[in-house]
Specification:
single chain, about 450 residues, alpha/beta, Rossmann fold, 2 domains, six-stranded parallel beta sheet, 14 strands, about 45% helix, about 15% strand, elongated, binds uridine-5'-diphosphate-glucuronic acid
């Protein structure tokens, strides 16, 4: 077991720190935001993640997890330092790695014996090797240290599951000592037979970008198929099912929807494109994925507006704001983009999200948006309801109750949670994603008559 410092208490840092403490290490989580550190000491976590409060509380109370903003002291007391600070996008799409370098400098100035610095923030290929050079400038002569890369593959909303039971562990390490420490740290995962790759720093860094860009590609690809399905009368869910049965393709990440969001795919696709450009390599596929995703979100605005006729002055209830369920993360959430598009067309938006509303209320781009107390409250007097995030509570709504409170019964199901027949039988006009109707088979009229008869 090691004394470990984890620098940066965002998603990756806090989840990593909590899991490492749970594996028995003595972990100090560091953040430059002293107020945030104080809140964490009072066990108030900065974001919502299922299961995380329990594991943080247990390890904090049992003395294996500590919080501080004193980086230098934490480093001096640790053999291993994980860097998990943010790498936000710059205006040109490249990742801003200045926070990583600032942390590495302080680590270099506090080397009181061999230390392993593990670069876990998603950063352009070449960052880890460059960090070694950067630290050498600030370290005392003869100070011993290594820099390794150990990319993180956790998913928000299921962060503990994906950290405690990952598909693989990727270790970029180029000294025996660095590799051996990283193997020891991950031992509890090897006991459950997690596969591992040990490779060079650059290869480890690129595996991370390649993984996220490939997943984003799968999503943009199925979204493009969805658009074709709408034009040609096919059903994208069945296309995805048939496609995914080929084991070379696989069924996951083939859910058509409003486009991907979050703090990773948008940022990492842009960053790959930027560092490919710098390396004078064409990244045509990833560039097309980015364009397809922007296009998909715009299409959703058109879809909703088309469903309500002339949009100006109409009211739309948006259900779901976070970029996916089980998180309150609003970063690059398709809902924000779609709401902005609706507002530009003069639509009045009332939103509801089970968890992220408090964060949403603080966003300047949601200034003129009203918030409902629940889905039915948001839908009161609306000309359409648009489901943007697939929270479980939107899967089983009472459609007759929803219809009663709405001005016009239109359901834009942008996550394909409902079946057309079920929605139409309840008297709604149904709008899905990629749910085309074969030519000759006209869409059933959602007519009031049908519901009255029923
Ligand atoms: C993503 C990756 O899945 C993780 O493996 C990676 O570690 C993480 O980024 C990261 O780089 O830190 P995350 O951003 O938490 O994880 O979310 P995902 O579950 O991948 O979803 C991303 C977006 O894609 C969401 O907006 C989601 O709605 C959308 N999506 C996902 C689809 O539209 N269709 C799908 O089939 C799957």
């Amino acid at each position: 077991m090691y004394n470990i410092t984890v620098v940066g208490t965002g998603y990756v840092g806090l989840v990593t720190g909590a899991c490492l403490a749970d594996f028995g290490n003595n972990v100090t989580c560091v953040d430059s935001d002293a107020a945030k550190i104080e809140r964490m000491k009072a066990l108030e976590l900065p974001f919502f993640e299922p299961g995380l409060p329990e594991i943080v509380e247990r390890n904090f109370n049992e003395g294996r997890l500590h919080f501080t903003s004193d980086l230098a002291t934490a480093v001096r007391n640790s053999k291993v330092v994980f860097i998990t600070v943010g790498t936000p996008p710059r205006a040109d799409g490249s990742a801003d790695t200045s926070a990583i370098y600032a942390v590495a400098k302080i680590v270099a100035q506090n080397l009181n014996g061999y230390k392993l610095v593990i670069q876990k923030s998603t950063a352009p290929v070449g960052t880890a090797r460059d960090l070694y050079r950067h630290m050498s400038k600030y370290a005392k002569k003869g100070a011993k240290f290594d820099v390794a890369s150990n990319p993180e593959f956790l998913r928000e909303g299921s962060a503990l599951e994906t950290s405690m039971r990952p598909d693989r562990v990727v270790i970029g390490a180029e000294s025996k000592e660095a590799e051996s420490i990283l193997r020891k740290i991950h031992e509890p995962l090897f006991l459950i037979e997690t596969p591992m790759i040990v490779t060079s720093l650059e290869t480890a860094e690129l595996i991370k970008y390649a993984s996220n860009c490939f997943l984003a590609t799968k999503i943009s690809f199925i979204n493009e198929m969805a658009n074709l399905c709408e034009a040609l009368g096919a059903d994208v869910q069945m296309v995805a099912k048939g496609l995914g049965m080929d084991r070379r393709i696989g069924p996951k990440f083939l859910h058509a929807g409003p486009g991907y969001g979050g703090s990773c795919f948008p940022k990492d696709t842009h960053a790959l494109s930027a560092f490919a450009k710098k390396a004078k390599v064409k990244s045509g596929i990833v560039d097309a994925v980015i364009a397809a995703n922007d296009h998909q979100m715009t299409r959703m605005v058109d879809k909703i507006c088309n469903s309500i006729g002339a949009p100006r002055g109409k009211k739309v209830a948006v259900l779901g704001l976070s970029f996916k369920p089980n998180t309150d993360d609003l970063r690059e959430a398709p809902a924000l983009y779609i709401i902005e598009g609706l507002k530009k067309r003069g639509v009045k938006v009332v939103a509801f999200d089970p968890i992220s509303m408090r964060k949403a209320e603080e966003l300047p781009q949601l200034k003129n948006v009203e918030f409902g107390a629940d889905a039915y409250d948001a839908a009161r007097g609306a000309h359409a309801v648009a489901i943007i995030t697939e929270w479980n509570e939107f899967r089983g709504m009472e459609l007759s109750r929803l219809k009663r409170v709405m001005k016009k019964p239109v359901l834009c199901d942008l996550r394909n949670l409902y079946k057309r027949d079920q929605v139409e039988a309840a008297g709604f006009e149904y709008v899905g994603v990629g749910k085309g109707v074969p030519a000759g088979l006209t869409k059933k009229k959602p007519a009031k008559r049908a519901s009255k008869k029923a």
